[in-house]
Amino acid sequence: MRTKVALVTGAAAGIGAACAKRLAADGIAIGVLDVDAARCAGTVAAITAAGGRAIALGADISDRAAVRAALARLRDAFGPVTIVVNNAGITGFVPFEELTDEQWDRMYAVNVKGTFIVTQEVLPDMKAARWGRVVNISSSSAQTGSVHMAHYSSSKGAIISLTRTLAQELGPLGITVNNIPPGSVMNTLMSEAARQRAGSRMESLLAALPVRRQGEPEDIANACAWLCAEASGYVTGQTIGVNGGRVVS
Q1: Degrees (nearest 5) of the Cα angle 59, 84, 211?
Q2: For the segment 221-233, what is each residue's pLDDT rounded down to a tens digit?
Q3: In this structure, is residue 245 part of a structural domain?
Q4: Residues 6+ apart with CB under 8 A from 87
Q5: Count of domains in the chain?
Q6: Whether pTM exceeds 0.85
Q7: Angle (CA) 159 184 107, round 5°
Q8: Which of 32, 152, 228, 242 is catalytic?
Q9: Is residue 247 in a domain?
Q10: By residue range, what is the domain housing residue 74?
Q11: CATH of the domain at 81
Q12: What is the average pLDDT across 151-165?
């Protein structure tokens, strides 16, 4: 049986890196993509050291030409891409009244348009295979709202709606589409100011969580691996909350 190939975006560190490593452990060849290919070296090295297959790719996911070029390299290396983990994104804390047009547009360009572009560009491979897995990483902030994060939480809410729509549209083609809204997993790509602001609220947040701990990237990766597996073929259009009980559905 031919090795499956996955593209994991935002995979230089954090949740993306954990998802890439976990899928590689299942025998999937990985395109490790981040805005700069050089940043992906650590993830690729970890995968290859464990006996897996991976290639570093660089692209701004909001740039369709760059995404196409990265996918061409991935296909040349490993073959058609039938799994995509849309993890790449940006975040930020800005009071609503202070948000600029530029901040709003950039957030949506990466978090929403980027997810749209990557999924659309991978779709032909999935259609040809009559099999595919799309896992979108959204955010629990999209479910609850979050102070000073109107641009971020609303962009991640769009990802949840996109997931539901694509699940219905692509299901007849053998493609499942689901999303994971992580809870309190510290994002390694946050600015230092954002870390400090998030950290100031973390103690009280963790005390209120049923599991009483902060999430690890591997917690998200484990759920992602299941959604990408053959065993989850009857699961689509779902929001799989990996959040320690922050949001209970």
Answers
A1: 110
A2: 999 999 999 999 9
A3: no
A4: 8, 9, 10, 11, 15, 16, 19, 137
A5: 1
A6: yes
A7: 35
A8: 152
A9: no
A10: 5-232
A11: 3.40.50.720
A12: 97
